[in-house]
Protein 1
Amino acid sequence: MPSLLILLPLAVLVIFNLPLGMAMRRLYYWIVATVLVAQGFFVAVTPFFDWKALNDPLAMFFEYKLSIDAFSLIMLFIIALVASVSLQVARYTIEPGRKTEGFINLLLVTVIGMNAIVMANGIFSLYVFVEVVAVSSFILIAMNKSKFAMEGAFKYLILSAVASVMILFAIAILFFISGDTSFSSVQSAAKVQAASAYVKIAMMLLIAGLFIKSGIVPFHGWLPDAYTESQAPVSVLLAGIVTKTVGVYALIRLMYYVFGMSPAAQKILMFAGALSIVVGALAAITQKNFKKMLAYSSVSQMGYIILALGCGTTMAIIGAVFHLLNHAIFKSLLFVNSASVEKSLGTVDMEKMGGLGQKMPVTGFTSVIAFLSTAGIPPLSGFWSKLIIITALWTAGNTGYAALALVSSIITLGYFLSMQSMAFFGQVRNGLEDVKESGMGLAIPQAILAIVTIGIGLLFPVIYNLFLMPLGNILR
Amino acid sequence: MLLMAIVWTVMTPRLLRSVVGLAAVSVILSMIMFYMDSPLAAVFELSVCAGLIPVIFFTTISFTQRVGQEELIERKKIIFRQYVYLPIILAVVAVVMLLSKPVVDFVFPTAPVVQDVRKVLWDDRHLDLLGQIIIILAGALGIVALFKETKK
Amino acid sequence: MVMSFNLIRTLIGLEILIKVATLFIVLAGHVTGNTALAQALVVTLIVIEVVVMVVAGGLVLCIYRSNRTINANELVNRKG
């Protein structure tokens, strides 16, 4: 069954790239949308239904080593959700025709890659699909063909490749030690020789490489440019899932499940996380470009996740993963907002905006919800995840870090509200009088994401029992 | 010997020589691999990296060549400044590694059942195979997407 | 070496780094006796490396087309 998640999109990809008639091409979008929604359903249904009971018809031909646990399930859900939103945004922002097809192709590849990443069974397979996603991301960023997009794509390419090399070195060392690359062998080997210098070096390299890929300070150089200069649906995709899957998921999976958390690693993770929170928040405040501000805010939020990961207690990990989920949703929502603003206004320069809330009610309202969720206001989803993280930090004795997280949360809130009021409320500026809401196409994804944000916030107890507790059980 | 080839490839001011240097590095690497009981990997490395990649580079370079004399002069200045650091870093790393050697002891895992024919192993790594296919697809689709506008 | 100003030189430097990593994997395979797995990994790696290089080359070409230069110093223009 899990292999279907990879093979089905792949089949769709191949079929729709064969020379077919025009009518078939128009179907492409719908079929891809169906596939993605199906993936979402798969995840939602899994706690209630035992898929293993079904015979996997493909097992006769292909035997893939794939495994899904609660963490993978959550990731699969996010992937499906954000990818479908991105698809929707693409439909209304990229001119239809060949270019959209190119985008959908690459989108499918990215989804395939990410599905495989979260279901992979060994470090090397993880790496292979990380590269798959990386390659498609490079192209996606560069599709804009503007000077800055190219530059962003190239920067990302170089940094990502350097990170890949570091990860490769780590894999080589782990191979040295354990003779295999699957997670279980590496785990047992690492336990046996935890004190060995080589294991430490491997861990350092792995952490450094994955930090680059996740955009944690001080390795976040590529992130603002890549997020800002790419086209709207690409930004949604990047911010919503790619960075998370490729970087943060891999970090959590490797650090927590495979390696166990040595005190030194914990310190590094917590420090880098805290640094990212602060630097990201401060940098976001000074930005005039809406998307760039969102990019730095993403850096900051990733910091929260890494900080919680560094803390290491079960509750902290639950908080980290939950924040991952929430951030994917509200950050994607914010980027869709920016896409709709960009479409109606033609610019993302915040100094030129004002009083948009009156003209673009859907965008305004949903962006308020997203911002409040980012800052951690009840009863939205962000509140719960931040609460868990801060509580976990506090009870684990890291009161300094907990206070830091709390304070930066408040600062973020203050800044966001002021920015919000400037751009969306207040007087309508000159020249903006005939701005309209940007059409149903973009309004629907925004509405959906906002509803999910509110829903997760309100239904928190249900989500906790259903999805997060199993996560805690799997962790050691 | 490998190190010398690498250093030369990096520092040579003429771009084309650099590409040749890359091919040379690949060849030497491939020979090392051969000595380490990895004949198939050696063959791949040889064919791909000593052949295909220089072709890629030559194609790219031929489209973007713009040799200027200023470039060469500026390059020599930069070499001196930057690469003075590099040997220092290398020396530090070597010293650290040498010092930590006695501390390091790692247990070699019990030798697994040695698959004598490599192909037998490839039955185990289906996921990676699939990944390779996908990445080739991704690259092809990507290049097409990048350069499509010229056809329009 | 990777920080060079000519973009193509950067790519070459990257290539070399990847090769060294490949070498390490083969080394690990040789030492642990699992040469079969090591070769499988290396072959996969080489495929990935080629694709990445091709895409990188394509990107460089595109950059060149819009900027007429592949000098990293000249390419740095900030938008704020």
Note: The first helix of chain A runs from residue 2 to 17.
Protein 2
Amino acid sequence: MDPVLVKSALIAVAVLGCIGLLFGIGLALAAQKFSVKANPKVEEVLEVLAGAQ
Amino acid sequence: MKKVQRQRVLLGWILLVGLFLFAGCDSEHRFVKRTAFKGANQIVITFAGPVDEPWAKKMDHYAVYEKQDPDILLSLAGVTLSQDKTTVTLTFQETLNQEQPHVLSVKEIQSQGKPQGTALLTVKKAYLGYLLSVLLGAMIIKNFVFTKYLGLCVFFGTSQKKSTAVGMGVTFTLVMVASAMMSWFMYQFVLKPFRLDFLQIVVFIGLVSLSVQAVDTILRKVNPALFKAFGVYLVLVIANCIILAVPLILANNEYNALESLMLAVGAGGGFLVALFLMSSVRERLEVANVPPTYRGLPIAFITAGLFALAFMGFSGMSIF
């Protein structure tokens, strides 16, 4: 294969990988910082209910 | 919220806005003060100092084309230099289309025997007017829903009630501005320098989902009441094509930060206007005596078509 093409493909993979990783970490941190405690009872009650609408 | 924290948030916003303003208003060349259209077929270039007459008089040193068509060079009819030698007026054979930003390249500027390099300049109409025309163009004249037929699924899905329509419109505008500005930043500072423009669609889709997810997470904690009202629509925003069309448009047209912001606000506002108009009509249709075949979605499609016809009246209009 043409080494120029391989190089540009590798650059693309590296750059997009970095962007994805960065934003993923950012979202994870945001989710942790802005976490909302869900009431576990809500889930239990929903489980018991019939579930149609 | 504590006072210090609020101040910090405010400072962050100011920095962010400042960054965009800075990126949007940088001077294009150190030796060129300003460029402007004059009359129907003239462009005036003001230099920071006197330029050499033999250099300035030679037409080969200037090349002008419309930003959209770099292949078509406009033909020059004449060049005049002002008395103090700081202003050059280019006259063209044909009338310039001043709605379009023009690119003007000035080669090897000579000032008092010293070379000042080549300048690639953009000539635009008065800037605030241009920004406003981008905003109103995206909002009304080239409304995304009624003239480009984008985002129709969400448009028909959420335009049954006025309250839902307004909620969707506001959420949409917020997410649109966030994701468009991020896309602009990514395109200008990451994709273009690395020559990855061909991946723009993939990256923009990711950015849209990112901003939707981020708004979802943050809103849930910061303002639960607002989240209850708008949270449902947030997911719908991902499936909207306007939100992907705007980053693509601003990447293709090489908009700067302010223009991108105006386009995003205009597109969001246009969607809000479209939803509001449509929901007002549909609320009335609920009580109207519609033939059974047309009840529900069919009559909504017809209404949307009539709206599109009405919006066609704006086409070709130019403001400022």
Note: Residues 127-312 of chain B form one domain.
Protein 3
Amino acid sequence: MVNLATSAAIAIARGGLGASRKWRRVRVSVVLSAAFLAVLTISALFAPWIAPYNPTTSDVLSNLLPPFSEGEPGSAMHVFGTDVVGRDVLSGVIYGGRVSLTIAIAAVVGAGILGTVLGLAAGYLRGIFDEIVMRLVDVQLAFPFIVLAIMIMYIVGPGLWNIVLALVIAKWPIYARVARAEALWLSKSDFVTAARSMGAGHLRIMFRHILPNAFSPLAVIAAFAVPQMIILEAALSFLGLGVPPETVSWGSMLAAGRVTLEQAWWIATFPGLAIMAAVLSINILVDALRVKLGASIGDQ
Amino acid sequence: MFRFVSKRALSASIVIVGVVAVIFVLSRMVGDPISLMVQPGMTQADIDALRRYWQLDKPILEQFGIFLSSALSGDFGNSIWQNVPALRLVLQVLPATLLLTTSALVFAIMGALILGSISALYQRSVFDRAIGAFTLIGQSVPSFWLALMLILVFANHLRMFPTGGYGSLRHLVMPTLALGLFPLARLTRLVRNGLVEVLAQDYIRTARSKGLSEGVILGRHCLRNIAIALVTVVAVDFGLLMGGAVITETIFAWPGLGRLMIQAIDRRDYPVMEAGAFVIAISVVLSSLLADLTYALINPKVRYG
């Protein structure tokens, strides 16, 4: 089970979600993806200056306006319409991107560090520590992580950093597995023996000698994990377990739009499109980078 | 082979016991069900009696001991809300979930074989490009948003399918699409890339020069060779599907395990949560065990120590 799933994970990391070198017409799509992500990042960073409205200010008199409705005289057009209490959907998408991207990146970094450290230690130290970590990994992978994340969110309650915590706990095992697999064979290599014979300590060998060599596959997995985290955050917020009620995220907007789906299609549609475009762009871009760096990342 | 099977079975059962322990700890941390059951007018003595009745007054370790020994005999206790055996509740809704996940998986595998073969046989054609774009997009759509969009278009506007519920084939269509798109996209890519590699092999040229038809070549020589990769990914995807079913079932009001679990977590109904997670974990562990065995069967070169 361990070997099979690990090799599948590594194969996916190396083979990627995206086009193989033989199946590639990425030029245009890569440029578009990079452009979209740039726009998204800038609008997330400078949301207060870019968003036409405050995403949490309601205006009941102009609620459920369809896209491209004129705002009140002197204010901007509601390009994506307004929701049930008159909040501007475009502004919500811009501010929501800020929340969703922050959570996704923080969760990937957190899960990556936790999983890598545990996995490296397990593969390098072996023995009882290895057994404990890997059984923990097995137990967690037998558990659909959405169920795990839901339970954690119930325990810690809604909140930005609580989502990050839930996602880190739910997603560290994959890094642990890959880091362990790399550490296992790297710790038998000559340069580790050499380092050891020169008197290097365990920590130094693990982090100065093994980690740099195991870094590429881990980095690819982490990069592909960002879009997954965006979707997971949206799923939790969609179920009402993610961000606190007054915070706007793509998932919480979807949840609100679900209720008014029949009268107002735009409320659920635009945040969903934003999620899809962000996820697609990151996937395309990471994949192109992976192919570009292919020689060094692919096979060691 | 026997040693391999028993070794795998042992590690699988360790995993299941571990899952039960994790569930126990997490569900106790979620909160106190008794506080949700208190009605106005109950005295403290009534509340204590409730607590005693559900054995929640005992020390936590003793609760775990009671729990583990009865769980291993299939008894998770009664649902705190409905007062019927929790495992029975779970097993009642399990067929609905299995129907949904199986249907999504079959949809994904069949679709992937067809789309992947077309894509590989007509490399660089318009089809290939369209299918390539489809696989990228299909892996980027959140299933719950897709579910909403399907409801919007096919239920609210076209009135082709019901917005939710259970019972007929028409109820099954939209949940299957919502749940199956991601694995479909992933498997299509896998089939396509695998076929492209195989089709370039010498033995395919040999088979062609023997005058075998394209159908025989594809079916007997190519697909068999990509079956291993397919089995691995399908096994991994089955776990994902069980998780994805939680949200899909909630949106489509599908009376399955996922919806039951969400309700149980909402009501702090420990026994149902525990029984549900137990059953999910067993099915995930079994599917990967099955994948390991199939893997060993398909590929005689694989020898497990």
Note: Confidence is low (pLDDT under 50) at residues 295-300 of chain A.
Protein 4
Amino acid sequence: MLSRTADHVFWMSRYTERAENTARMLDVNYQTSLLPQSTAVAELGWQGLLKISELLPAYQGLYGEVTPQRVLQFMVREEQNPSSIISCLRAARENARAVRGTLTTEVWETQNQTWLELNRLLATDMLERDPGQFFEWVKFRSHLSRGVTVGTMLVDEALYFMRLGTFLERGDNTARLLDVKFNAVDSDFYGLASDQEYDFYHWSAILRSVSGFEIYRRVYRNVIQPDRVAELLVLRPDIPRSLLSCMNEVVNNLDAVCESSSCLSCRLAGKLRADLKFTTIDEILKQGLHAFLVQFLEQINQIGAEISREFLVPA
Amino acid sequence: MLKYDEMYERGTEALRTHYRDYGAWLSQQDETAMRARRDEAEVIFRRVGITFAVYGDKDEDGAGTERLIPFDLIPRIIPAHEWRELQKGLVQRVNALNRFLHDIYHEQAILKAGIVPSEQILQNSQFRPEMMGVDVPNQVYSMISGVDIVRAPDGQGNGQYYVLEDNLRVPSGVSYMLEDRKMMMRLFPDLFRLNRVAPIAHYPDMLLESLRASAPSTTDNPTVVVLTPGMYNSAYFEHAFLAQQMGVELVEGKDLFVDQDQVFMRTTRGPRKVDVIYRRVDDDFLDPSTFRADSTLGCAGLMKAYKAGRVNICNAVGTGIADDKSIYPYVPKMIEFYLGEKPILNNVPTFMCRVAEDLQYTLAHLSELVVKEVHGAGGYGMLVGPMASQPEIENFRQLLTAHPERYIAQPTLSLSTCPTYVESGIAPRHIDLRPFVLSGKTVQMVPGGLTRVALKEGSLVVNSSQGGGTKDTWILEN
């Protein structure tokens, strides 16, 4: 297929996934903020959210002080914020429109409809009145977009590049979420040992944001502990949003588009997947979770750049 | 002025024969149900994204510059015997135009015979000297022609068809023709049981077949692509639509490159050879190394590959010399010159303002005439005398006096009307018709075309950029 076409479908999926993850994080932060807690703790949560996407300076430049209402506006409606939900969904739809002939009618119409509905919803006060419902809507549209893709697209390169975009972005987003949430708890990540309740809400919020709360219970049948949360979201191959699970998909889809599986993208991805597959959470914690995640993000970034160079924007 | 309505006999409520079944059906439809259908059509067109971009326009609703072309529910119906005549006339006309193009870029016999003045061709900006002596497959220059046809009453009030324009460069609108039909079949399936409407959905197949048949003879399984200026072009929907319907790649200039006179596209598996380019990019922008150097829409080296016969470009480069408004008046003579036949379709009488006596007549009758720029398109830069204000007329008088060669003038035709949904209910609105004619070893077309309708009361300008809408066009089978 045309490299430019592959580039568009790849980014269409990345932006759709990013919008979903932004909605997930905002939703969890919003739910958490409804719990009784000090203003300082609450602000920490919202700040962390901006830090995840490296947006704190941009936010402060535009909005100044960190308040829940303003962060919501910034992360949902602000067109100057390239990671806001409106920016992501616009970019997803623009990319889809550029290659609408490559997509099935259902895939294109889903993207287009999402964009039209978003504009209709944002013209109302739904976000202010009931943020949870709005975030549900964003997640739902992302589920729909993924479902219609898998359910209607021919299994060929276009689909592989879409899936690549989805999982590369998801791996990146999960890693960022983990990094910020574990760092939000200063000192070490066993949290404020004195404050059991805060702990529970903090860790369960992370799980909820990746739809992992019920999974945690099923897998561990035990109280929520940070090291297990980390293990679940980094190393479990059977959790759809874990780093290993994302890397498995990245490797599979890269193998499908690369004729010889010997390209640099394949090798980098294969190596990163092997690292995740054959390590333990104890080893990671010894190295330091933050250091591990920073390294992971660098690698995934490099894989993205290499995919671009080898397939999407060849010189 | 006499009027001609497609549905009703002159000045009466009596339905014309070919509208009887439809008219009877329409009279039984409930007003609110029809309104609901119109809303449904709009919702679907929006969701499907059947939109066009308006240059220099910006919306606040997030839809960017994308607009819907209004779709009218009442079809324009043409009886079989009329279509047969039209079809014969179109084949004849397009054949002659292709013969003319071949002649102009080879022997120029028509110039030597003094039928078309040489300076009209050789000094015309649409004449491409680069094409002199270049042989194109099957001698077809205009593979896809969008001929604009209007109907107006003659002295007795009978409707006569006239060709208004021959669009031989990159005529658009065929996607609306196809989508309008799809919409009608979705909204009113029962109507298609009631009337035997000739199908048109095989157009993309016919187009693909023509494109493949025009490939350089060196290849037996040619790769066809559609070349678009990109998603911000006003006709982008159509480019994407046609590429998808034909199952070929939609490429932009930057996806292509030329190596040793061979055109390639950049794919995820390396370069792939391209044999036929259905381009929706104007000549000027095709190849920055030959035409406009500032063009980012084309591909450097394309012309060289084309002239070497390694790739075919459809329509051919240089077709603009045959659909230029200053050449239009000569088309009936071309038909006689090349085919030895009498023209089947009428031209609209045209005053060429570069001729002193025509200019004199035009200036004296500005308030009755339509004045058009020779190189204008899209309904811009024209004067419709009977509708114009005094200052507008005076403005054109000055323009004409300063540059008479840039204008032609025609009597204001009373374009036929067709009942159309408007704010106040159903009212007559002026329409035209653009059939799409495909030329290869033979000339063929699907039965029908795009009917455009001027939605403003009394307006004669049907262009979508000027508030025009579209209708489904039915050719009734006997």
Note: Residues 80-104 of chain B form the longest helix (25 residues).
